[in-house]
# Entry
Amino acid sequence: MKIVLYPDPILRKITPRVEDFGPPLAETAREMLEFMYRSKGVGLAAPQVGLTLRLFVFNPSGDPAKKEEEGVLVNPRIVKRKGEAYGEEGCLSFPEIYGEVRRATWIRVEAQDLEGRPLELEFQDFQARVVQHELDHLEGILFVDRMEPAEKIRIRRQLEKLEREYKETRAAGH
# Structure
């Protein structure tokens, strides 16, 4: 598994619903969690590792010892949101880039677990931010898309650098 970096087109694709539940899906989620921890992340969506699955994993603590904070959501969607706050976000697909993003402070999510059973969960504050960020990945929306214009200007050179590196890598045939 490796992180897909901006501007790879897979990051802009809307992922299809997961229909096949079972051991392979559970194994993918386990591998994603392990990879997320190794990458020092708090969330990881399937497109970020090159998979077109409507699935993401998260642990807002970022601590692999805190298994009780881990989550895996399959086919998630936000059904209710409240409040609004700005907060700094980063993304494994955008190394070393951080910016202020406005998100709901409370959300209710409907999803499925790894066996396909329905879930209804509520998240607030930082947990809600992480879940919204990862869910955006499943819709082809990136955190930079949600930044205010001044934030986008501030990080423009860093984005251009990632775009150049992507083109150079593609030209080299990797």
About this structure: The beta strands are 43-45, 55-58, 71-82, 85-91, 94-103, 106-112, 118-124. The mean pLDDT is 96.
